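To illustrate the input format used throughout this study, we show a single complete record. The first block contains the structure-token representation of the backbone; no residue identities are included at this stage. The design step must infer an amino acid for every position from geometry alone.
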């Protein structure tokens, strides 16, 4: 009798252990991966450059100094990853080394390289960081008339940018058809129903004035 009880207890432990392992496996499938740097702090390996003016050497516009990407801002164009990404959380730090101007972080870039490509933009224009801009693509919160190339949803809260010259942090979460933007920890916007491909490149704009980027890290999401 005692032997039967012991066997029953052991069998129960095995079942519980198997269930626990199965649940752990299921949980592991839904856990985000580790953050990986998209910028190595030394060079632009892993990135492609595109400028609207083909006569300008991109290396005169984009440079790496002191662990940061420096962008001159002219002519218009962008730096984009060589790899496409679908669901992710992207963290980008930026600052204006001089007079604040305009730039942006592009996600889900697709189609031909041009100014501007089909993509969703996390706006970086001074005091408008947190705005969402659909370039050639629509989303539910758009406030512009139908058919316009630029579709816009302004940030939902007062500007959370730091003073010009200080480093700011953008947290950009892109999952499915939803884009969420946080500026220095403040939730500023959420766009839903994005009409863009499920995967695309990530880009940094050259759009009017000098800007610096650093600590660009991406966490893949399920």
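Output of the design step:
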């Amino acid at each position: 009798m005692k032997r039967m009880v012991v066997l029953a207890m052991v069998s129960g432990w095995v079942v519980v252990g198997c269930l626990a392992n199965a649940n752990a496996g299921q949980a592991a499938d839904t856990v985000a991966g580790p953050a990986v740097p998209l910028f190595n702090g030394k060079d632009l390996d892993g990135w492609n450059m595109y400028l609207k003016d083909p006569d300008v050497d991109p290396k005169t516009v984009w440079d790496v100094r002191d662990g940061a990407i420096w962008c001159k801002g002219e002519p218009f164009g962008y730096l984009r990853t060589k790899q496409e990404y679908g669901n992710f959380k992207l963290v980008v730090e930026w600052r204006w080394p001089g007079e604040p101007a305009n730039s942006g972080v592009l996600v889900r870039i697709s189609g031909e390289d041009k100014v501007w490509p089909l993509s969703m933009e996390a706006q970086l224009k001074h005091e408008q960081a947190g705005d969402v801009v659909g370039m050639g693509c629509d989303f539910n919160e758009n406030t512009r008339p139908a058919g316009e190339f630029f579709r816009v949803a302004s940030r939902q809260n007062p500007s959370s940018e730091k003073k010009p010259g200080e480093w700011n942090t953008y947290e950009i979460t892109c999952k499915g058809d939803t884009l969420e933007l946080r500026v220095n920890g403040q939730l500023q916007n959420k766009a839903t129903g994005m009409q863009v491909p499920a995967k695309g490149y990530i880009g940094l704009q050259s759009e009017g004035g000098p800007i610096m980027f650093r600590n660009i890290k991406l966490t893949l999401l399920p």
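Structural context for interpreting the output: The chain has two domains: 1-31, 33-220. The domain at 33-220 is CATH 2.60.120.560 (Jelly Rolls).
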